[in-house]
Amino acid sequence: MPLHSPGTWRLMAGGPADGATNMAIDEAIVNSVLEGASPPTLRFYAWSPPCLSLGRSQPSADVDVAACQTAAVDVVRRPSGGRAILHTDELTYSVALLQTDPLAAGGILESYRRLSEGLLAGLRLLGVQAVQAVSARKPAEDLSAVCFETPSDYEITVQGRKLVGSAQWRARGGVLQHGTLPLHGDITRIVDYLALPDAEREAQRQTLRTRATTLEASLGRSGRFAQIATALAGGFSQALGLELIPGELTTREQDLSAELRRSRYAAPDWTERT
After folding, report:
1. Is 68 a catalytic residue?
2. What is the pTM of this model?
3. What is the pLDDT of residues 138-177, one digit of tens each?
4. 24, 147, 233, 244: which one is catalytic?
5. What is the dihedral of CA 249, 251, 257, 259, to 10 degrees?
6. How far apart are CA 143 and CA 134, in angstroms?
7. Domain membership of residue 221 as a residue range
8. Is residue 1 part of a domain?
């Protein structure tokens, strides 16, 4: 079993992929880290075509299947929890590490807080004055189908509006945290792909306009994906004391991600499981 230096992580920045591929790669990396075959990994990626992702236990009935098919929007179910996200015009990050890593200590909420420090530092390098949210949590029955409606504790906000939404999954001693940073565009587009009555659809659209934002709106200018990924990597390095070494998927990770894509993330049995 290879040994990896403490505080040294692999940095990956790949091109866009479809939703099932992206989720399969994230899980394959976690498995490889858990096996000791790969170091902790920070990955940045994009999505093509646009994709609506559901949280692990979110009802599949939340999806307007016909609208997604008409607009060529993929649908995938994440291994992590939370509510629906429309992945388009965004940068997504994922972190894979062991539960025994000091950055994962203290459970989900505490590790959220630590990893959010890396995101905050990276955003500040871009000039965004972002903060960590401390939310007044809604009862589960009051939650909408949309992830970006309300920030959870230690997610990233700008002037009270949610900018980065994250979710975490822990299994077999491994930790996967991934999250989305909308870069530009209409943050309310997601409601077009959810099964909502017309009145509720418009109300949800109005709510999102006041509670969520994009990087471009926060900065007052656009930015390139590569530039933003570099800044976020710098934030993780500075805030968390990491050495980030550029790397690629191993052959084992490529093979496992292909199998996970076929057997899970592209399979209706998984996507429609609830």
Report:
1. no
2. 0.92
3. 444 444 566 555 556 778 999 999 999 999 999 999 999 9
4. 147
5. 170
6. 17
7. 8-271
8. no
